[in-house]
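Sat 14:20. Reprocessing the chain from the morning session after the first attempt stalled halfway. Input below, unchanged.
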Amino acid sequence: MTNRELRLYELICSPSNVNLMIYIDCKKLCPNHVKNAFRMVKKRHPYFRMKIETNSESKSLEYVEMETQNELESIYLDAFELKNEIELNEWQSRLINFGSKSRDSTKSTFYLELYSFENKHQLYICVNHSGIDGPGLFQAIRDFSAYLDLILEGKKDLEVESRDFLDVHGNYDHSFDLEELKKEPIIEKFLEPVQVLHYQDETKPFINSKFFQLDELATKNLINNCKTNNSTIQAALSTAMMICLINSKEKLEEKITFVNSCPCNMRSYLKDVSSQDIICGSSALIWSQKINLANDLVWNLVKENTEKIKMKLNENHGLKWWLKLKNSINFQKFSIMSSSMGVVSMNETKLKNFKIVDLRFLGSAYNVTPGNAGIMTHAFTFLDRFTFNFSYTYPALDEKWAQIFSNNLNLILRHLANQESLCTKLQDLLDSLEKY
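Finished this time. Tokens:
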């Protein structure tokens, strides 16, 4: 039985959740099918068998593996029958509310809700972020989908081999000199992150979000434009977010320093860790660039971001960031962060008994501080559609501000999918954006 303390990075992530809405088309799906499939997920992935409890002596949080048959069989799922298509289409507010609920991690690390209307179903899954990240959540749902397909086919007593519960943050294997890491320069003057607009004690704060999706053609064009410019989707997203933040500022000099950031999947850098392992395995890459508002071409900025991300990956800056965090070494703060999680596959072409129509992701927290302003964008491509959401702390950042920011983000990404964007100057694009 596993019983160990949460490591520092796991503790930092523990107040947060990662959430998915899975839109399923299936005539015979019922709550028990979902429960049985997640029982298989619990057998496969130890993190889904964990509880998070406070040690009575050390007072530290620790993972405690479920022991009793009742615990191992328990799946916390609430099921609801919807009245019509109108209620079914209210998934955005449902996902936000679902992610914002307080969860009892002493009982389970994950919770589910199922909403159904006729043969259409929306499954919501919330998992504590301490032991899982975005790629890990997608892996768990990929396994869930395979199990669900077999269960709907009538298969019983499925053989499932458990993976190990890895302790990747206990001790990092590295060759960096910590004293040298302490000497790395810190940029103090750069474009500041978003600032608090409103502070309302009477309003319960939460993570709000705006959801977007490009169609197949726009997604294909965006990918092709990135290939033409030897660039990545992550770099395009990072550039778009950067431009949105610049646009949100009232007074700027013509030349500014910007510090960008994106998560980095560390699985390939860790020993004995595979893409199938459920870990909290995302670190941060942070890089700076000089921006000339008058002269810079937008795609040149995308190409520069691509090269800087590649350089940071090659130099294993993700591990550096973990080491600095663990050893209380100052690390570079940043203007903004955004995450593109790549192409997501659920092996959907192999599913025989149901169809996944859509996927939506949301990072959330249930103990947000009213005075904290923060934003984040998560993106991925599923079923050939580039899907993203812009999240923000409410009420520190208000609805109108977030609507303008997210609409501009959507506009920029759609512009990058057009051929004419290849010659667009930064200032011209800024002039076309909605102002505050």
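Residues 134-152 form the longest helix (19 residues).
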